Amino acid sequence: MPRDRTPLIQKIAKQASVTFKDCLSKDNGEHKPLPEQHKQLISLVTSLRAADLKLAPRKSSRPGPEGAQSPPVTYMHICETPVFSMGVFILRSGASIPLHDHPGMNGMIKVLYGKVSVRCFDKLDSDGAVTPVFEPPLSHSQVPSLCRSVLHCVSEYSASSPPCLLTPQQDNLHQIEALGGPAAFLDILAPPYDPDNNRDCHYYQVLQVSAPSSESPEETWLLEIPQPEDFWCGGQAYPGPPVSV
Ligand SMILES: [Fe+2]
Known about the structure:
InterPro entries: PCO/ADO, RmlC-like_jellyroll, RmlC_Cupin_sf. The protein is mainly beta.
């Protein structure tokens, strides 16, 4: 039998296209992927390694004098369709992608080299919740940007880990930090960010509560903030096999 020479990343793109094709349908209000197809996609993504994308792990553990001006995070675009987007994020040693959301989207993060810590939050219904006292206190203009949430998990991932998953309902907000050196991960989002369809990216700050109003220590309040000044994302050419979908 002839050997299948299709690059793994091309198989992943095709599978993502099938898996998430109904996420935008009006009948699928929760944007759920097809379960069996989703399993197959997870299996393909789990086996992806940096070498499959011709990605050489960065060696430098800290930026040099000129490196201080280089972006803490770089994005390599692979492909985007109305159904999903796919690319690679590279984090400099010690860099992190601040807490942000993916409204109405599914996602998958697969580490290609290095190690990352992912802190995932779920948004909770704020209706009827008693707003606690914050330290420092919030101004009136900040109150509408508050949202109640819960820290769902903090996990570490390396190249041998399965992907970290997010859905519109669970683990939808996350902060990703490179641990012990540079790190890179494949990022699949379905559907892609689209500010014209209420899928813009928002950044959040975890607030300190001086007098917790809840029994749950994991419950927390987030304040929507502008993109933090110490975070920006540069671009870099994707070196791997071409992908068509
Ligand atoms: Fe993200």
